[in-house]
Specification:
The structure is a homotetramer of 294-residue chains. With 294 residues, the first copy, chain A, is mainly α. Helices cover 78% and strands 1% of the residues of chain A. A two-stranded antiparallel ribbon of chain A has the order 1-2. In chain A, strand 1 and strand 2 form a beta hairpin.
Amino acid sequence: MGSFKGHALPGTFFYVTGIWWTLKAVLKYACKRHKRTSYLGSKALFHRVDIVEGIILVCMALTGMLGEQFITGGPYLSLYDYKKGQWVQLLGWHHTTMYFFFGLVGVADILCSTISSIPASLSKLTLSNALLVEAFIFYNHTHGREILDIFVHQLLVLVIIVTGLLAFLEFLIRHNVILELLRISFILLQGSWFWQIGFVLYPPSGGPAWDLTDHENIMFLTICLCWHYAFSFIIIGIIYAFVIWLTSGPHLLRGWATSKINAVIQGASLPHVGSFPESKEDYCLFLFQKPSDT
Amino acid sequence: MGSFKGHALPGTFFYVTGIWWTLKAVLKYACKRHKRTSYLGSKALFHRVDIVEGIILVCMALTGMLGEQFITGGPYLSLYDYKKGQWVQLLGWHHTTMYFFFGLVGVADILCSTISSIPASLSKLTLSNALLVEAFIFYNHTHGREILDIFVHQLLVLVIIVTGLLAFLEFLIRHNVILELLRISFILLQGSWFWQIGFVLYPPSGGPAWDLTDHENIMFLTICLCWHYAFSFIIIGIIYAFVIWLTSGPHLLRGWATSKINAVIQGASLPHVGSFPESKEDYCLFLFQKPSDT
Amino acid sequence: MGSFKGHALPGTFFYVTGIWWTLKAVLKYACKRHKRTSYLGSKALFHRVDIVEGIILVCMALTGMLGEQFITGGPYLSLYDYKKGQWVQLLGWHHTTMYFFFGLVGVADILCSTISSIPASLSKLTLSNALLVEAFIFYNHTHGREILDIFVHQLLVLVIIVTGLLAFLEFLIRHNVILELLRISFILLQGSWFWQIGFVLYPPSGGPAWDLTDHENIMFLTICLCWHYAFSFIIIGIIYAFVIWLTSGPHLLRGWATSKINAVIQGASLPHVGSFPESKEDYCLFLFQKPSDT
Amino acid sequence: MGSFKGHALPGTFFYVTGIWWTLKAVLKYACKRHKRTSYLGSKALFHRVDIVEGIILVCMALTGMLGEQFITGGPYLSLYDYKKGQWVQLLGWHHTTMYFFFGLVGVADILCSTISSIPASLSKLTLSNALLVEAFIFYNHTHGREILDIFVHQLLVLVIIVTGLLAFLEFLIRHNVILELLRISFILLQGSWFWQIGFVLYPPSGGPAWDLTDHENIMFLTICLCWHYAFSFIIIGIIYAFVIWLTSGPHLLRGWATSKINAVIQGASLPHVGSFPESKEDYCLFLFQKPSDT
């Protein structure tokens, strides 16, 4: 991975995955809110999507593992060179291990969606596992490099650990859409940060790399990470607004409007005092207890 | 921010915000406890207050960002000086980034209160985010300074991280008034600690700064932080007592009194054995399950 | 506190408090399990006990604060000596601050038990606060001492932080008797560890202190802490067994016995198949859902 | 323990325990899912198994403690050699202390299963305790050794701490089969990692030990731990599949099949529209709320 492409590839992978998961999470949330009657139908659809997603994940992980092993200069599945008495291409093996655990996420996705005796939360757990294993490997990855190189990788490890812990929290507290989007925002952040690392360590313009010992660069990359994070927030916000607008027709304030209409309809046949609290309560339920009943 | 005013300003901002949030939280709690029938009316009021609060927050964040950029000697929106080959005023950009994330809190406040399809917990999450981003930036802020300078900023980072984690906990466990007040007490602590940092590093009397290498000063500032914390506890206690006294009329022990009166009233028409446990139970509910039903 | 007595005193205080809390927690638990009908009466009793406990705590904290200030060589309430230009007896002020926060626990105990508008969980929160403040102060307490001196204080800080976090967990998850006893076991551990520190640093036999630079001593004190911990477990176990035996009469296996008797009684009038699952289920409920309904 | 056998023995112990716990957890889960009517009978069986398990644990801990004390060159219960003025065999005492806390787990298992007044969660708590005490002792165990020796023990401490925290989480959130299996996977990892330490530090082939100062070896052991972890995952997966296949007869997709059959049966006597949603809902409940109702 010691090149710009080697960082751009996983970055693109995480970014695309993040955007796809955002779409899925918001769609699921919108379906639950609006189409309560036809919900069971969409649930079957989401199951099929999960299976396809799992298969794609497994294929990508396999490609990554084979790629890491059989590129020119790769380890070609040999681990220890007994002649020279040293390990062969351990960094390549590191990446292979990471890909393997992301492959397990795909396997868990497929199993959870096809076999009913496996609890659905297994999928979240393997994701959390894959991320924490990735963080653990990256933590022991950058021995004897320059201060800035270590710093950008430390930030990456921080981002991955937070993502892993959030995925574990999701495993415990399920069906909280905000928590899910938060975890996805960190996946997006990881994706764009891979790109940033590529630009810092292997400038694609061909120019010289950044001064790896300058402390000012560390000061800049600190806020740069925050800007990346803000950007991933904005991306998710745009997707959220777009999907909600798409699924709810012309009125964004549908919940309020529906309760208003209900009140009007009921007000025509029933005395106002009796009907109003009911519709009002329904409105409050939408507004205040959404995360708990989603 | 390298001046007394630069520390007094955010300190005052956090202190005023903290006092305002205490008032709001205690009022909300008191409204829920006493006026169960007219509660829906006050909920609409609180919504309007949230919108105004969000607008004020956005304005303050914008002012802060523009101020940091366009004060004399500020970066004037330029990030990198290509002539000199160095970054321009990175500390100013650090502060701008922090203000931006607090501005996002305001935006989330407005969105949560106006659009019904957005879960209300988003507001807590952005607050937690803004605080943790602030802590992250402050952590990488004090390179190459004196030991005491680093120590007071480390304490600040500790306070901010705890506040951020408490806000995240509030995002998960909602409607717990004690947890909310705890988080606010740390906001107050942060406010007064900014003042303390100002006094330590840039004494407004014009006298010399504290001896930045003396370990005794570190020993004192350790307990000084605790005193600031105790002070913020007392402030919140006074506001709590005042608001509860204001909303409950002359009797602070209203819950007990009400149940007593109920028992007397019911005791007049019903046999004592049947009525007493019921009112007693109501009393116990007030006393023991308050946090769960607020 | 730089003497054997200065460590034995807080040690004894924490040990006595711990044993008292164990008694109270187990009694409360036993009352809830056995006397469901007369439970309300015992609840009023526990309230009065809480008030007395709070008053005792406040008195002890006041005594401690005054003692630290006005012993021979104490700071006598003066903080800064302007003539010499240095702080006065900062270690004494450290201890005063710790006592103050434990006094706040007493105040919260009294307020929670007398004023019904204050949530009962405030008491747990102030305890957690007092412990974490104590840990924070101890952490910045041992600058420039020998390695063994620092190590025993580090272990103390570790114990106090764990206790504080457990108290905070209790604030969130209430009415879990095992969690409460776990927190108390750490209070006991803190008490006996204070004694251990006294023995290590200021041997009461008048002999020379331990070799403060010997690494073997660190190895021993590591397991010594574990033995203290095991001892506090055994103390709590004995109290638990004693109280349960006292409140349940001659049979410890009362739950099982009762269900057996019920089955026999019901079996006399009803067909066996119908009655057995019911009494069995009751038994299972006792055994499996105890912590959730206590 | 300074030999290959000294590491292989606890490794085997943890591995066997882990496999046994996996079998028990999956069997319990399968029993709960399929045989709801005959479940109470199997519950009594599991109780008896717990008692036997507790007795075995106590015996193993006693054997371990006596073995550590009375092997040739062991401390023979003497702690301090007053003649030489030094501690006797502290590492042996370390191991004795660890075994003691695992013995407590056995005692708690027996007590929880026989005495109904003790909450069942005590068993999980003592397990968490034993693991965290083990981690604490191992953390202070490897003073003054080579870098690779320290590294493999640090990884061991990391694994044990995570296991302890997961056991504590299980104490709070009970009856979550995935969480239980996750904790067991770390027990298995600990077991196989003990074997790995034995191979690295005391090669059984009699050849020279690994180069303890080579950084490449650290890089390899990092991913080696991940492979061990993946292996423990696969072991658990195989056991899970085997037990579920054993308890559910020829069809793995029993839940789906049952609901299908139900729908067909009900569809014969009732109108399709009314019966389908009911069976469908039952199916969804199986798939989505399993962890909460297990």
